[in-house]
Design brief:
With about 260 residues, the chain is an alpha/beta fold. It contains ten helices and eight strands.
Length: about 260
């Protein structure tokens, strides 16, 4: 991506849009002046050297690459035209065909970052239209790598599924953490001790997986083979339907992703 590239983020003051803007500048991919960010209210105080606007069409007109970072339910109200632009959408459920038709450009990418973009640790699956060029793909990789890691996948169906998998960010680990904390407190641990213990467990696990690139199945198998305290806990959780509950949750997330896309048509 050339340092003269101009990027516009529709929804630039939102959770994901803001994280992307900060990451692009922080990684020195572009100077702030090459960014145009739209927001509904008064411009915020951060990134003052970027261009802020309420006019999404004006944003597109001064951009080479446009990032759609709005909620799917807000998509019907986005009435703009982006001929000749590369458009990257981070909306759940809204199809490449819908975006291409509405914005008048065949060069469309769908990607699903998550909230960990804020700390440079988002995993972002993405897929591109047939008309996206090799240069477009290189641009997408640079952008996504600035706030984590990425993988191109073959189909939009995979993106829809991963909306409820990696797209959820910290939500599922937080669900596990909250359950463990409640159990710890029920056994008499002070809340602050329970929280520190559980958070340290999750953070340490993530860093180990990142450092060793180990298959989680192998990690679990090693504990089961040892036949100690952890094996007893794993087997009890499995017997209580842990994996079934996870599958049910992911299935519900997929249905919701598809419903959001259908409602946004």
């Amino acid at each position: 991506m050339d340092t003269k590239t101009r990027i516009g983020i529709i929804g630039g003051n939102g959770w994901i849009g803001g994280a992307v803007a900060r990451a692009v500048v922080g990684a020195q991919l572009l100077p702030p002046g090459n960014l145009t960010l739209s927001c509904r209210s008064a411009p915020p105080g951060w990134l003052p050297d970027a261009h802020w606007t309420h006019d999404n069409q004006a944003l597109i007109d001064r951009s080479d690459v446009v990032i759609l970072s709005v909620r799917p339910q807000d998509w019907p109200a986005i009435r703009v035209s982006a001929p000749g632009r590369l458009v990257i959408s981070v909306m759940a459920g809204v199809t490449i065909a819908d975006i291409a038709s509405r914005l008048g450009t065949p060069r469309v990418v769908r990607g699903l970052p998550n909230a960990a973009a804020e700390v440079g640790k988002s995993f972002t699956p993405w897929t591109a239209s047939a008309q996206a060029t090799d240069e477009d793909r290189a641009t997408v990789r640079q952008l996504l790598d600035s706030f984590g890691s990425e993988d191109e996948v073959a189909t939009e169906a995979e993106i829809d599924y991963m909306t409820g998998l990696s797209g959820t960010g910290p939500a599922y680990p937080a669900l596990l953490a909250a359950a463990m904390m409640r159990d710890a407190m029920a056994h008499g641990l002070p809340p602050e001790v329970a929280r520190r213990a559980v958070v340290a467990l999750l953070v340490g696990t993530g860093r180990l997986f990142e450092k060793n690139d180990e298959d989680p199945e192998k990690t679990m198998a090693a504990f089961l083979e040892y036949r100690g305290v952890t094996a007893a806990a794993i087997e009890a959780m499995q017997a209580s339907g842990f994996e079934t509950a996870v599958s049910a949750g992911l299935a519900a997330a997929l249905r919701k992703s598809l419903d959001l896309g259908a409602a946004a048509d």
